[in-house]
Design brief:
4 helices; mainly alpha; elongated; 115 residues
Length: 115
């Protein structure tokens, strides 16, 4: 079994991963909102852009919740993810999956409008 120091180091790395994912999603949202009208003169399939925004916001919200959970685990030395594995699993899916799905949807939108 891993010792407490290794577990806390892993939790700190997990926290940093969610922090970086939140930064990536926020930057993507800002760039997309700022340059959408400049990149595409007559965009088609705008519903995809809405889906991208929803996926990115879902990813940000899930990542922030996981950051709070991870910091609580480090501070209180508690394994919240061990007590609620399905909840944490879904949050992991929404945080990372939301970002990946947003990139895929935006790629489809880009190919449709720029290709």
């Amino acid at each position: 079994m891993a010792d407490k120091e290794n577990i806390n180091d892993a939790r700190k790395m997990e926290y940093d991963s969610f922090k970086h994912l939140t930064t990536l999603c926020t930057g993507t949202l800002l760039l997309l909102a700022g340059f959408l009208d400049k990149l595409f003169s007559d965009p088609q399939w705008l519903a995809l852009v809405t889906a991208v925004f929803i996926c990115l916001m879902l990813s940000i919200a899930s990542s922030v919740i996981l950051m709070f959970v991870t910091s609580m685990e480090i501070r209180e030395n508690v394994g919240w993810d061990e007590k609620h594995p399905s909840c944490v699993g879904w949050l992991h899916f929404f945080s990372s999956g939301g970002f990946v799905i947003a990139l895929i949807i935006f790629s489809v939108f880009f190919v449709k409008n720029y290709g």
